[in-house]
Amino acid sequence: MKNYQAADLRNFAIVGHASAGKTMLSECMLACGGVINRLGSIANGTTVSDYTVAEKDRKISISAALLHTEWLGKKFNIIDSPGYLDFISESLGALRVSDFAVVVINAAHGIGVGTGQVWKYATGYNLPKIIVLNGLDKEHVNFEESLAQIRARFGDRVLPLSLPLNAGPGFNQLLDVFRSEVVTYQTDGTGKFTEAAASGAQKDQAAALHQQLIESTAESDDALLEKFFAQDGLSEEELRAGVHTAFEKQSFIPLFCTAAENNVGVARLMDFIGKYASSPLDRPKAKALDANDEEVEISVSDSEPSLLVFKTISEGQAGDLSYFRVYSGKVEVGMDLYNSARKSTERIGQIYVLNGKNRESAGLLAAGDIGTVVKLKDTHTGNTLCSGKKHVTLPKVTYPRPNIHQALRLKSKGEEDKIASGLAALHEEDPTFIYHADPELHQTVISGQGDLHLQVIAERLRRRFKVDFDLVEPRVPYRETIKARGESKYRHKKQTGGAGQFAEVWMRIEPKPRDTGVEFTESLVGQNVDRVFVPSVEKGVNAACKEGIIAGYRVVDVLIDFYDGKMHPVDSKDIAFQIAGKEAFREAFKAARPCLLEPIYTVEIRIPDDCMGNVIGDLSSRRGKILGMDSADGYQIVKATVPQKELYQYATVLRSLTAGRGIHTEDFSHYEEMPREMEAKVIADSKKPPEEKTQ
Ligand SMILES: Nc1nc2c(ncn2[C@@H]2O[C@H](COP(=O)(O)OP(=O)(O)OP(=O)(O)O)[C@@H](O)[C@H]2O)c(=O)[nH]1
Ligand SMILES: [Mg+2]
Q1: Which of 216, 387, 421, 569 is spaced 20 to 30 A from 693 at the CA atom?
Q2: By alpha-carbon position, which residue is closest to atom 3 of ligand 1?
Q3: In degrees, to the nearest 5, what angle opens at C-alpha 427 toward C-alphas 421 and 431?
């Protein structure tokens, strides 16, 4: 593998809404660059990028694929990212290590909710963007309408640098604004084309856009602006130098037109990337923390190496494959690097550059480059590896919190360990997937970004870790409490066999304010009960609170007063008072108008205007209470409280209510008394044998 210096690298993520044509676009780039001889296809599952079984089966991208090719002497490190928001962690990781973003929009579908999300994330990383309007060979596409929609959303700075001349089926001709040429592409997937000078109306159209390009280029640079006015325009040379700066500053956002299915329009896009798009030298300094957590800057020209691991794939026996970008120095096979998060040293084994699953060895990668390394011992996604001489930590990606949950029900016993190691490995690969084994509910709950995400995770668990389970609705952690005072006098007496047991506990209980927990007190007077038994009674009460009394859920918000009792000089002992304490509490509890509490969540829902009615109607059918409404970025934002029970699979419901355009977040808020009939159901359910329980 040739070594590339930072100036010759182009690191970019291809991002966008689902099915925009990102994978086909990356396939076209590989074909143009000569990496592949023929375009693969999504239908046949033969693209370089969508190489996993799950991707081929579903015909969508699920994980970000790293690809590379050479164009105009530059190495393109392409990260083809999935469009489904279920797999947003992949796009986030890809953008984190990119120098600019290629945002693909499907000309037939327009801007999708995914387009808005990735745009926001790319802006968050301060990345310049190139828009690719793809699918211009489809029926009923209208370039002018698409452009108007894109400008309405992303601003008038969006400037087409190629215009389709025959959009629709058979599309193969573009007007190239830079060169004022009509470019006619072959539609056989080779990406080859012929050029002819534009004339007539087309020439005028190209000239008008060229003028806009000159103006926005001049605007980004004061010296150029002066020349622009002094000379009434800019020379071709000045323009070319200025375009790069203008792109960097996003004085204009270039838009290219393509039909990636047939490799039309892609070569010109690649020319732009090679000549004008950002290299690691445009963002030469990265912020990091040093060993004392003080902010420092790492420069691409520093000699001490540092790299960030932005993605990990677990390969079972073969170990993990860590994807990284070098931020300073160079990374070589055999080098020892320090993992600043794990505080351990790693030996860099084999370095590979990838094209999907195909690997090519590289002895060394220079600052700015992207590659992978196998079998690191203890390095995880988000970790920084650096020189032992200069310890640094690069910022991690912040991932959105999961908002859909399922519980695992194992089909056979004894597989808990396999499941546990499988879950840990999958979380390592994908930090937006989380899991926890809930000791209270005796369930392992997995949480992700959408139903599809959890399905894919479940498939990986089954296939890779050979475990069998069903996904079921997670149990809800209800709570038990009381609404009135209660009291009891409980005598525990056992005189069978050897030593007897005797204890009598008198107890009063009363409700406490919400969220104040259980409080045990004693107000014993006189010598009826020896004080050494107070902790025994408390232990018994705590056990009862943990087990629950009316439906098996934890007791909360009760004040207990152990105020009197009786004992026996020989038969009274710790265990006797524990039992009496527990039973006394159970009796008092049942007498004190017990009730169930259910967890309530605050949800924040972002939806387009036209979905408002449906979403609000659905919320009220879920016992939701609207807290407020607001609007931002063209979306309506609804805040509401909804019981946890009603939020099961809400992410999926919301998608179907909004045609995929709605998203929500959820946070636990508080516990609240639940409606009588629902409470009765939960209590009845708790009496059933485990296999019949729906809770
Ligand atoms: N007609 C036509 N079809 C296209 C074009 N680009 C992609 N397709 C088809 O559209 C579908 C989606 O293309 P992909 O390349 O998988 O889209 P993607 O953006 O990678 O999709 P995800 O990664 O799953 O979000 C596939 O069936 C492609 O064959 C195009 O320019 N024209
Ligand atoms: Mg794809």
Answers
A1: 421
A2: 261
A3: 165
Q: What is the rounded distance in angstroms from the CA atom of residue 83 to the CA atom of residue 125?
A: 18
Return the closest-CA partner of residue 322 out of 663, 675, 66: 66
Question: 364 to each of 324, 349, 371, 689, how far by Cα in Å?
Answer: 13, 11, 10, 62
Q: What is the distance between the alpha carbons of residues 665 and 447, in angstroms, rounded to a whole number?
A: 13
Q: Decide: 11 and 99 in contact? Cβ < 8 Å.
A: yes
Q: Which residues of 514-540 are buried (b: 16+ CB within 10 A; e: fewer)?
A: eeeebebebebeeeebeeebbebbbbb
Q: Which residues contact 643 (CB under 8 A, 6 or more apart)?
A: 598, 599, 600, 601, 622, 623, 672, 674
Residues having CB closer than 6 A to ligand 1 are 16, 18-24, 42-43, 60-61, 82-84, 134-135, 137-138, 259-261
Ligand nearest 43 Cα, by number? 1
Locate tokens 């037939």: which residue?
Answer: 108
Give 81 Cα–ligand 2 centroid separation in angstroms: 6
Query: What pTM value is reported for the model?
Result: 0.85
**Which tens digits make up the pLDDT trace of 426-468?**
888 888 899 999 888 889 999 999 888 999 999 989 988 888 9
The answer to whether 352 and 372 are in contact (CB under 8 A) is yes
CA torsion angle 330 334 338 341 (round to 10): 100
Q: Write the residue with the smallest CA distance to atom 4 of ligand 1.
A: 261
pLDDT digits (tens, 9 = 90+) for 30-81: 999 999 999 999 999 999 999 998 899 999 999 999 999 999 999 999 999 9
DSSP-assigned letter for residue 649: T
- CB-CB contact of 575 with 534 (8 Å): no
Whole-angstrom Cα Rg for the chain? 32
Q: Report whether 606 contacts 662 (CB < 8 A).
A: yes
H or E stretch at 407: strand 404-410
Half-sphere exposure of 271 (CA within 13 A, CB side): 13
**CA dist., res. 326 & res. 367, Å (int):** 5
Q: CA 462: distance to chain centroid?
A: 22
Q: What is the largest distance, in Å, between two alpha-carbon atoms of the chain?
A: 114
For residue 585 the two structure tokens come to 């509490």
Neighbouring CB atoms inside 10 A of 623's CB total: 16
Half-sphere exposure (CA, 13 Å, Cβ side) for 603?
Answer: 31
| Tally of residues, the chain | 695
Nearest in space to 258 (alpha carbons), one of 141, 76, 132: 132
